[in-house]
DNA sequence: ACAAAGTTGTGTTCATTGTGTTCACGCTCA
DNA sequence: TGAGCGTGAACACAATGAACACAACTTTGT
């Protein structure tokens, strides 16, 4: 559950945005603050994962508060909400390492899309020990579109196979990957052998009684 | 012309990356530094737009240097280059407001793709007085929810498709949505794929005998 | 020591199911 | 009337999985 602190000087707006967040699966509103000082105190008290931060606060500029929040909680993520359209403000916020900048007024769908992006990219980095290039690319919405898949392989299934391999504790056989994903061994093998060609997996043989079994271990991309 | 400072302790690597940058239209190498101290001095002297920053430097951690570079030149952009795959390193760099994180080893094409993204997104913000949501979305590679309805789709049918999906208990295929609304599969698919682009639905494949079926699940707000 | 049998797994083939594209059709509007 | 749009039938082809021949090992028998 991703804990969110709402920071907005306008009580009504804060309430609306709280409602939006509360309706987003996987997110929960852990608090609301209406000034920069309150926000700092609440960050220290509640330890939220994410702050929805309005730039215009009565006691401090949101951009300045961003730095202070970072100092108070280095692991905090910040999604800036602002009516400000000055490119300079946007640039400063981006250089502050925000996860998004959403311009008011915005719809619930707008916010949900950004929260979803945050959840799928930044938060998956949070729960991982290692990352690879595709994780970073996901943050910036860049897809590895340059590598064409062979005929007979779909992008969606490839992503699922890669994900399964990367989260496996050890190596896996085609049959195991297939069972895990609801695919046949033969289909899983198609993807695994292609990943092998790309150098993204390492193949090892497991010897027993009978023909050796091909097992695949995630090795990360090789350029 | 975007001026780039290369910061890497390995002289050979720095030379290779300089070559990559020099071959990117719109970019010029303004200097090379091999230590953190040199990098700071060169940033002050050369005023580059972008630093290609290797994390592993002999005298300082690249992440720490990032903060110092920001203090010395608040308008500086930083593209991190690193062999580090620890997710924690990646997270810290992202919170430092980097424009990208490229994992070694990478190809020239890899770097050019990121430089191109930087040029089209961050740099266009640099030359603008105002920004709008699509400018921010471009940084994060998101298409936004206000993308106009494509030719061949009617607003009335769009609403009906969205309503059908919203009220579905589970996911639906294009065929099912089409049957429900009295449309053909192909027409329903048009709307569903558009919603997929907008991030309002999630696509999952259902495997069986034969080609997998694309199924669409509503992911936007319920209300 | 070597061959044969048994066991386990692979890799290929092709049938099945579904997708995605193309373009003709009917309707609306200027 | 002609242009443009929304739609769907038709079709080529894509992505799967079952079935099967056979490969690569281990075990057993001579």
Automatic annotation (TrEMBL), chains A, B:
Compartment annotation: Cytoplasm
Keyword vocabulary terms for this entry: Activator, Cytoplasm, DNA-binding, Phosphoprotein, Transcription, Transcription regulation, Two-component regulatory system
GO MF annotation terms: DNA binding; DNA-binding transcription factor activity; phosphorelay response regulator activity
PTM-bearing positions, type 4-aspartylphosphate: 54
Top-level taxon: Bacteria
Principal subcellular localization: cytoplasm
Response regulatory domain ranges (all copies): 3-119
GO cellular component terms attached to this protein's record: cytoplasm
PANTHER family in alphabetical order: TRANSCRIPTIONAL REGULATORY PROTEIN DCUR-RELATED, TRANSCRIPTIONAL REGULATORY PROTEIN DPIA
Protein name as it appears in the record: Transcriptional regulatory protein
Organism listed in the record: Paeniglutamicibacter gangotriensis Lz1y
């Amino acid at each position: 559950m991703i804990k969110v602190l709402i920071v907005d000087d306008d009580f009504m707006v804060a309430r609306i945005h709280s409602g939006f967040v509360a309706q987003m699966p996987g997110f929960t509103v852990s608090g609301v603050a209406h000034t920069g000082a309150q926000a700092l105190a609440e960050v220290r008290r509640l330890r939220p994962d994410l702050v929805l931060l309005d730039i215009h606060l009565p006691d401090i500029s949101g951009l300045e508060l961003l730095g202070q929040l970072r100092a108070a909680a280095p692991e905090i993520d910040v999604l800036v909400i602002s009516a400000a359209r000055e490119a300079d403000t946007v640039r400063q916020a981006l250089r502050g390492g925000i996860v998004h900048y959403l311009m008011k007024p915005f719809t619930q769908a707008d916010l949900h899309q950004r929260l979803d992006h945050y959840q799928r990219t930044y938060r998956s980095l949070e729960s991982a020990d290692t990352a690879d290039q595709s994780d970073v690319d996901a943050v910036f919405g860049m897809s590895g579109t340059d590598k064409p898949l062979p005929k007979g392989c779909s992008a969606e299934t490839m992503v699922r196979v890669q994900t399964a391999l990367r989260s496996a504790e050890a190596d896996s056989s085609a049959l195991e990957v297939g069972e895990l994903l609801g695919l046949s061994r033969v289909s899983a093998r198609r993807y695994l052998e292609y990943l092998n060609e790309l150098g993204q997996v390492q193949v090892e043989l497991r010897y027993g009684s009978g023909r050796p079994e091909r097992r695949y271990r995630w090795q990360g991309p090789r350029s």
